[in-house]
Write a structure and sequence with these properties.
The chain is an all-beta fold. The strands form 4 sheets. Strands 2, 5, 6, 8, 9, 11 and 12 form a 7-stranded antiparallel β-sheet that branches. The longest helix is centred in the middle third of the chain and has 8 residues. It is globular.
Length: 279
């Protein structure tokens, strides 16, 4: 699915400009370290395909011991926000998230990446034969002993005949989760019941075991819904996970099962399941 947005144009130059908005800090002040000492972000310009679409990527490099988060960050993570609101000749964006790692910190489960994240992006231009002026903001949470938000401005020109380095982007594309078909999925059933402040969803997935300590991540079409995994267990091919969904209203709500996105993670692998059926 593509994210379609209405944007205005700001083209700074044919190179990347990154500005990090963060108050200065030092070890002597007792404040967290400066964000520019923790995270470095650049755009890998990639290439324009024969279909007119442009494949590029964000490369996020982190200092030792620091982590950033996947699109569904887990119990205590900070969800990333990628907003290309200043771009020109850009109709839509599709992100290709590599399989993330699952971390357990003090009994809290978070999902993300350490050291480096290369996030490929399929950019759909309004006019395929013209450059894309990619301009906007990236908001990330980065964590070690403390968590710090990073607000990064980006402006870069992607030529219509661009042919940048392909290797890191292609490597990241190969790190995507398996599809349901590739994983041998036979079915995914979701039983939904109301609770006092939302819904409880019991997901029953029929597929071979992915690896030890499987985690099932449930995502809704509404990012404002708080998602909390309660339990996960496997018996043979049956993987069962219970998740609670709490909207901002704090009340039960209507849920379209076909809008749910289920991701199974284990042992550095992932399976992407789109939608589930009723029992």
């Amino acid at each position: 699915m593509y994210l379609i947005m209405n944007w205005t144009s700001t083209l700074a130059a044919a190179f990347l400009a990154v500005t990090v908005f963060c108050a200065p800090a030092s070890a002597q002040s007792g404040l967290p370290p400066a964000i520019e000492d923790i995270v470095d972000i650049e755009v890998l310009p990639g290439w324009r395909g024969s279909d007119g679409q442009h494949m590029a990527a964000l490369r996020i490099r982190l200092a030792d011991g620091w982590k950033t988060y996947w699109r569904a960050p887990g119990q205590s993570g900070i969800p990333p926000s990628l907003n290309w609101s200043g771009s020109d000749n850009l109709k839509g964006v599709k992100f290709h998230w590599p399989v993330p790692d699952v971390f357990d910190v003090g009994g809290m489960q978070t999902i993300g990446y350490e050291q480096e994240l290369v996030l490929p992006m399929t950019l759909v231009p309004k006019s395929s034969g013209k450059p894309i002026a990619l301009s906007g903001k990236v908001n990330l949470g980065v964590c070690k002993d403390v968590c710090i938000p990073a607000d990064v401005s980006i402006s870069v020109a992607l030529p219509a005949q661009g042919a940048g380095s392909k290797a890191p982007i292609k490597r990241a594309l190969r790190q995507r989760p398996d599809t349901a078909k590739e994983a041998g999925l036979r079915g995914a059933v979701c039983d939904v019941e109301p609770i006092s402040d939302g819904l409880r969803v019991t997901v029953k997935i029929d597929m071979p075991k992915l690896g030890p300590n499987e985690v099932v991540v449930v995502e809704t079409a509404d990012p404002s819904v708080w998602v909390s995994q309660v339990s996960t267990a496997r018996e043979g091919r049956a993987l069962t996970s219970v998740t609670e969904l709490v909207p901002s209203s704090g009340k039960p709500f209507l849920l379209n099962r076909s809008d749910l996105r289920l991701t199974v993670l284990a042992a550095g692998r992932g399976v992407d399941i789109r939608g589930c059926t009723g029992s």
